[in-house]
Design a protein that fits this description.
mainly alpha, Growth Hormone, Chain: A
């Protein structure tokens, strides 16, 4: 080597591609890995739980009641859970809630494997799981920005959506194999093991010391979040649009079996293709957001996606062709993910740190709780009216009215 030759500076560390930029943060890499394993286990449990209830009771009504048992604790506890997540370290709350979920899944596994499980036990444990999700979800949503910062928040939320839909795809498929091979109890056991990945990832994170918690009265803690929502038009509008999506636009999801049988005249295999199309559309939209997270006008994209659900729903009830139905359902999956992910990002970037979990507790209550209630009401109306097309068309019109009102009252949303 020539001593007079200058030494080249060391190469900078390789950066992840734009689609994966949030993974450059060590804490988020840990979170992503652990959460993906847990989501696969969670969807395994949802699938096996539904199969177990149907096998024990042969009652679609009791099967629906399990969904209500999971949703009610979320509706009742999300707001107090958001207050708690703003009052204590969010990682600590995540560790506690995931540890409790592990124990509940393990208990259901042991009861099932023993052959002594009965319906009320499943319902009670489903309610317990709903309660853990009520405390876990606001803390997790507010914790995301602590892991990646504001700059990479939309990319992280898009990756979270990819992760969720990957779990929704892989979990049921694995559950079907496990149930057919060794029964539902083993699926519950594998879910309990999957929570270990989340707990390990949380414990390995390196976080700055938590700042002091402001001393305020409990009543003021509850009021602060609602006062902020009431006085901030952008946040209020975003929550109203998200609520409309969950209550009205998402009614097609629990009604997919009815569409498959009565509209498209297909069987269980066709229903599976419809569900896969919905998941594929959601996954593609999440990939698009991850790739273009810094190059889009978020408010405008959100407005287009939310409004676009209206014609898609109306076309779904008017086109009785299976392939067209698959395409429409895929587009609705994409529009739903775009709306909810962009609303999530815009809310989190607008809300002060000290109120984030309280405001996000209202947001997470919508997909986790309000969607289930909307599905139950829609199902009852279909049974009463005898027409799934009429119910979904009415829901589409109501959703269009809410979105139109929001865009009229808050035109600045499209400039965000």
């Amino acid at each position: 080597m020539n001593p007079s030759q200058p030494i080249a500076p060391p190469s900078p560390p390789a950066q992840p591609p734009a689609m994966l930029r949030a993974l450059r943060h060590r804490n988020y890499r840990l979170f992503f890995t652990g959460q993906l394993a847990s989501l696969i286990g969670t969807w395994m449990q949802f699938t096996a739980q539904g199969w177990l209830v149907l096998r024990l009771t042969d009652s679609p009504m009791l099967l629906g009641a399990i969904g209500l048992a999971s949703a009610l604790p979320i509706l009742l506890l999300s707001i107090p859970a958001g207050v708690l997540a703003d009052r204590m370290p969010r990682r600590t709350l995540l560790i506690i809630s995931n540890a409790v979920a592990l124990l509940l899944a393990l208990l259901l596994a042991l009861l099932t494997l023993s052959g002594n499980v009965i319906y009320w036990q499943i319902a009670l444990l489903a309610a317990g799981m709903g309660a853990t999700r009520a405390f876990e979800a606001p803390a997790r949503q507010a914790f995301t920005i602590e892991m990646v910062g504001r700059e990479d928040l939309l990319n992280a939320i898009a990756l979270n959506s990819i992760m969720f839909n990957a779990g929704r795809t892989l979990g049921p498929a694995l559950a079907g194999f496990v149930i057919a091979s060794v029964g539902e109890g083993m699926a519950f056991l594998l879910n309990s093991v999957s929570f270990i990945a989340v707990l390990v990832s949380l414990l390995l994170m390196r976080l700055p010391p938590a700042g002091p918690t402001p001393a305020t009265r409990r009543r003021d803690q509850y009021a602060a979040g609602f006062t902020y929502i009431r006085t901030e038009p952008i946040v209020r509008t975003l929550l109203l649009i998200a609520a409309s999506v969950c209550l009205f636009a998402y009614v097609y999801i629990p009604l997919l079996p009815v569409f498959a049988r009565d509209v498209f005249l297909t069987d269980a295999r066709g229903l599976g293709w419809l569900g896969a199309a919905n998941g594929a559309g959601a996954m593609l939209a999440a990939l698009l957001l991850a790739q273009r997270s810094e190059r889009i006008r978020r408010g405008r994209w959100l407005s287009w996606a939310a409004a676009g659900l209206v014609p898609l729903l109306l076309l779904l009830v008017g086109l009785p062709f299976f392939v067209a139905g698959m395409l429409l359902i895929a587009l609705m999956g994409a529009a739903g993910v775009l709306t909810m992910a962009l609303a999530n990002t815009l809310i989190q970037t607008a809300v002060p740190d000290q109120l984030r979990a309280r405001v996000m507790s209202v947001f997470v209550m919508l997909p986790l709780g309000v969607t289930a209630l909307g599905g139950m009401v829609a199902g009852a109306l279909v049974e009463w009216s005898g027409s799934v097309a009429l119910v979904v068309a009415a829901a589409a019109i109501l959703h269009g009215g809410v979105v139109g009102f929001c865009l009229w009252r808050t035109p600045q949303l499209q400039q965000l």
